[in-house]
Amino acid sequence: MPRWHSACRLLFAILGLTMSPLSARAANLETLLMPGPVIAGHAKYEQECSRCHDRADRSRQAVLCRTCHEPVAADIAQHKGFHGRLRGAEAAQCGACHTEHKGRPADIVKLQPASFPHAQTDFPLQGAHATVACTACHRRAANIAKRRPRASSVTSRTSCTRASLAAIAPAPRRRRLVTRAV
After folding, report:
1. Can you tell me the distance from the alpha carbon of 149 to that of 119, in angstroms, rounded to the nearest whole number?
2. 15-52 as b/e, with b when 16 or more CB fall inside 10 Å?
3. Which of 26, 35, 127, 182 could make an SS bond with 101 (beta carbons 3.0 to 4.6 A apart)?
4. Any idea what DSSP says for residue 138?
């Protein structure tokens, strides 16, 4: 049998398998070529490669990231927050800092609380704020890595101020105003 007959049979066999109902359960080619699993936070999109990747235009990846990460996109557009104050943020590729496909437990934020440049955020640490531990304001260590601390994870300014004042001086006693009937 000529060689081209074998090649044709192989090609038809492959086409037959990819066109069959069984292929609906099989992984698509992109999934097979994927460099590794995505982080846990992106796991529900793992089979939808086009959500994060544009095969025709690799430079669109940052735009696709910002489609889901709207608060970061807003910061960049308004030149606010950590990402909005980065030089060249509009043209930057998110993957330059946040490398994906490292597996479910991977930390792609890579935040180092001790060396985080808080001055580059909307809340630079000044005065007493510069001396307190991160967890004094960010209740859960996991929330330190968030773009902005969530209201539920941050000690309110009122309670923080009250605690600071109580440490400095006891609360003044309130005087009762006595009125006399005339």
Report:
1. 15
2. eeeeeeeeeeeeeeeeeeebeebbbeebeeebeebeeb
3. 35
4. B
